[in-house]
Write a structure and sequence with these properties.
The chain is built from 14 helices and 18 strands. It is α/β, with parallel strands linked by helices. It has one domain: Aldolase class I (TIM Barrel, Alpha-Beta Barrel). Helix 7 crosses helix 9. The longest helix has 18 residues. The protein is globular. It starts with a strand and ends with a strand.
């Protein structure tokens, strides 16, 4: 792609968000009930490719179990309220009652309570006892400290998730994290991210990760682009990382690494377009935060908003539209893409003539001129 001169010594290439791309239907169509939204990573298969992000507003132990029973993958944040407090109901009430002006201070106070390894083991065991798969996440800075507790508890899928995750996390305080060496020691699939470039994704794939998260914290509750100036439009980021997946497939002799779009997925149309750009699945927060039966009850925040010195997010009030089941499967009472996400994905596939997610990745897309 040709670079654009910005001025002086700087050039940059054009990049596109999901809002700016559109799916182009093919010459054939199908019935929505004849397409498959199944997604599989390693030995684990799910009914649909929409992963519930490890965010306290949507993913308590109870809601993780419920999401699994609906056929999806939900991830528990092991640095969240569930592993800081035995019963975090009081803390949830404080957050929900906080005004917009005091929300950050309330979050900082509540999340100053340290993570407890014994609670990590207890909450993982609770999910396992329900019969559901256990997927749990830590930030790169916390992996060295808490990974033993996670592995001892018997997690099934392990995520290392942050604003930016590199193949080697270097620090002068504590232990350096070499992802390749770390993943080699584990006997469970590891998903790592975020990243948003071909080179960064290729480095993460070479560590042995089963999946790579694409995104730099561009969701509804994040202010990373304002605080750090870091942002890559999601459509371009997904396409770049999907290209890295293709190159790594050749380089490794056939090892497939899943690409999971993480951030900027606000509607059912965004889900379809993310897969069309090359994602295998999407990780969402705000669409599920609108559920009446998640802890946030319409309010939404991420762990970045709790930082004691440089918060990069806030508590946003999205309101509620229905239960988690209704948001996933309908019936929808709205026409804005916030309900029946799976049904909408099936209809997008059927309208475009594709029968499964891998086929949808090959669809033609265009730049929408109205943007």
């Amino acid at each position: 792609m040709t670079d654009i001169e910005i001025g002086g010594t700087k050039r940059g290439r054009a990049a596109y968000s999901l809002e700016e791309v559109a799916i182009v239907p093919t010459r054939r169509t199908r019935k929505p009930d004849e397409v498959s939204t199944k997604w599989q990573i390693d030995a684990y298969e799910f009914s649909f490719p929409i992963v519930a992000a490890p965010m306290d507003s949507i993913a308590s132990v109870e809601s993780v179990i419920k999401y699994g029973k609906l056929g999806g993958l939900a991830v528990l944040n092991l640095e969240g309220l569930s592993t800081r407090y035995q019963d975090p109901s009081k803390q949830y009430k404080e957050i929900l009652a906080a005004s917009e002006s005091e929300a950050i201070k309330v979050l900082q106070k509540i999340y100053s309570e340290p993570v407890k390894p014994e609670l990590i083991k207890e909450k993982i065991a609770e999910i396992k006892e329900s019969g559901q798969l256990v997927a749990a996440a830590l930030s790169p800075a916390s992996v060295s400290e808490f990974s033993k507790a996670v592995m001892d508890a018997g997690v099934d899928l392990f995520l290392i998730r942050g604003t930016t995750v590199s193949a080697e996390h270097v620090t002068t305080k504590g232990d350096n994290l070499n992802l390749k060496e770390f993943i080699k020691r584990l006997d469970v699939p590891v998903i790592v991210g975020g990243c948003a470039s071909h080179q960064a994704a290729l480095h993460l794939m070479r560590t042995g990760a089963a999946g790579v998260l694409v995104g730099f914290g561009g969701g509804a509750s994040h202010t990373t682009k304002d605080v750090l100036g870091v942002r890559v439009p999601m459509a371009t980021a997904i396409a770049d990382v999907a290209a890295a997946r293709r190159d790594y497939l050749d380089e490794s002799g056939g090892r497939y690494v899943h690409v999971i779009a993480d951030g900027s997925i606000g509607t059912s149309g965004d889900v379809a377009k993310a897969i069309a750009m090359g994602a295998d699945a999407v990780m969402v927060g705000s669409p599920l935060a609108r559920a009446t039966d998640v802890p946030g009850q319409g309010k939404h925040w991420g762990i970045e908003a709790t930082h004691a010195e440089l918060p990069r997010g806030t508590v946003v009030n999205l309101g509620t539209v229905g239960s988690v089941e209704e948001i996933l499967f309908g019936p929808s009472t709205r026409s804005d893409g916030t309900m029946n996400l799976v049904g909408a994905l099936k209809r997008a596939m059927a309208t475009s003539g594709y029968s499964d997610l891998k086929e949808l990745q090959r669809i033609e897309v265009v730049i929408d001129p109205k943007y």
